[in-house]
Amino acid sequence: MKAGTRLFISHHEGGRTSEDATELFEDIERKRDPDSQIPLFISDDWDPFEEALLNVYGNLEQPSYKGVGRKPNTVLVPKEELRYAQVCKKREHGSIVGMVKRVVFGDLNDILEILGADSDGKISTSYIERFNLTIRNSLARFIRRTMNFSKKRKIHTKIVDFLQAWYNFVKPHKSLRASQIDGNRKWKQRTPAMAEGLTDHIWKLEELLMFRIPVQ
Asked: Is the overall model pTM greater than 0.85, yes or no?
């Protein structure tokens, strides 16, 4: 999710492995404008994310040889513009007693400056956590321990694709509304797609279902 516009960018259905995380970031990278800056990533302390980001946004470098022993193997190092921070839960006896915020890649001051406009300069995962609640309230397939769970991954992926389109184009987001002077209404409701500049109006469900994807 893009924090500034709440745009639901990408999703991946799979296991909790670095390979699956790499597929997620590869999909994000395919959608990124090559001329734009690598986005700032913030997540919880799930270790495969760090490895996956290196796989997608890392460069192979050869450490200098000091003339003794074997030559060192090449290593993956993050690109200079890659920035990644984690929000780690501190637990004691099974209960959360605090939060630790850690910068994995990049400089703390740079990260706080980027976050200034969208998050009051705070490293947080609150947007995506709230979005997880929206998903669970919108799709019975995500409610734990019920008979509505998905039986086939292919169908599950298609359902999440539809949720992604509905959330971005059909569902207005209260935090994205803009004040307007003309008309009787004080606020103009907006969807994430409108905030991102992908469309100029709130789509109806019929418009979404009848939309013909251009051949590329």
From this structure: no
